[in-house]
Amino acid sequence: MTLPYATLPGDLDRLIADEHVVANRLFEHLEAGRGDRRMLVDQVSYGRALHAHAEEEVLYPALAEIGAAADAEEGRVEHQALKRLLVLLDHADPGSREFERALNKLIGGVRHHIEKEEREFLPALRRAVGAEEMGRLGERYLAAKRSAPARSHPTVPPTGRRRRLMDMAGGFMDKVRDRVSGRSNVLATDASWLLDTQAQRILDTWSRLVLAPYELLTLEQARQQPSLADAAMEILRQDGRPTDPEEVGSAADVTVPGPGGDLVVRVYKPLGQTRDPVPVVMWVHGGGWILFTNDDYDASCRALVNRTGAIVVSPEYRKAPEHVFPAAHEDVLATYRWLRTNATGLGGDPSRIAIGGEGVGANMAAATCGQLKQAGEPLPVAQVLVCPLTTTAQYGASMRDAADARPLNRPLLSWMMMHAFRGVTDSLKDPRVDLLPLSAQGLAGLPPTLIVTTDRDVLQSQGDEWCARLEAAGVRATSVRYGGLMHDFFGLAAVLDKAAHAQQEVALHLRQAFGKAPAGHPLDGAPMRGAKVIG
After folding, report:
1. What percent of the chain is modeled with pLDDT above 70?
2. Using an 8 Å Cβ cutoff, are 516 and 307 in contact?
3. Greatest distance between any 2 Cα atoms in the chain
4. What's this model's pTM, rounded to 2 decimal places?
5. Among 40, 182, 222, 491, which is most exposed with the fewest C-beta within 10 angstroms?
């Protein structure tokens, strides 16, 4: 099921529908016999417990207020039955008759519940209260999830003071049980077994480090959580390997003027740089416009310096929701214009500047090329888009197939957009961020483009589609898809072999544009077109 109407990130019905897709994808893994069966059910149990609690706190009272008290009671009754099954699953061993019977009943019950909510309850509520109220209900729903017990408690009454007291006691006991059992360590990892061994270890390590899945946290809490780069460092420490960053000639922050005040830009220079000017790459980090800094993407920039021999410049753009769209896009564009004017002073060649980025950083890199083209200004000689967001729509098969993926899953993408476009939701269709609707005429003449995607990333389909549309517009474009990898993998080469391979692919694309591709390499001379899949 999918909702038969448009929603905005943060709307109650969008939040619930996203959770439905994740639950169904976890069920599909279980039905197909793939993944860690205990871990998958633990994630289902955790997600359903929070989902049921929040619906009982927010959705069902809202239904009662619009005269749908019978629907609300029906939902509560279904929840009680599902909670009892979840308790059985928590205590049974995977593969046992009791476990499998309870699981089959749970899958059927949840799917029936999903169909009822998406076909009847949620559309009726939206019609009655309007789009704006659905946004406010969404905020309350997220708050209710953050306060929910982590396990199902079917004996807790549906409402009243006794419920609140039992929830508090149950929540405390759940945390203790999860810590002792180790369940809390697996709630933010990928349990599908669709990742390669190295990628799985990174996510397992990261899941043990974070407080909870990001989309369940407040923004302030999320900003304090470790990144995948921190997980990579932990793995290096576990293996007794050096944790020093990859050596470059220098890495220093400089201040440049920006549209909202001074911007900090980090400049990386290659080892042994001569007096001759070298190419320049502007690399834009990711983080959903709201998280992370240049420190979290430091490894990406260092790798590009050493594999291209170029200067790499990375802007620290303003973050939402303190600075909502288009603040970050404006900062990236301003940094590029500053770089074109000041490349010589950095030891760079202003005629050989490329641009790229990861995640929403790739979105801003592509948007910068489009704005420069529209303004009639010189374009970069190449662009690289790693795991790019190219539309704000929930686009393509990967939005379902990788709905449960980590670190970026479907609920987290909506959560990020909710913060990034708070108060400016009409900007979700702005052509600087929603790129796919751009015309072929608007795309024609853009620089040679390499798009890197992974198969366990909700953004994979839109990255592939962007490549196809660039090609249709006559742009020299190719895509490389890495199997068994997750979003935000590119800077993890110290512990992930395919990340090292991707860095080499990106470097070769850039060196070709700079006129430095090695003789006889496929990139030398012949245009790159089409797509290839690796591993």
Report:
1. 94
2. no
3. 78
4. 0.94
5. 182
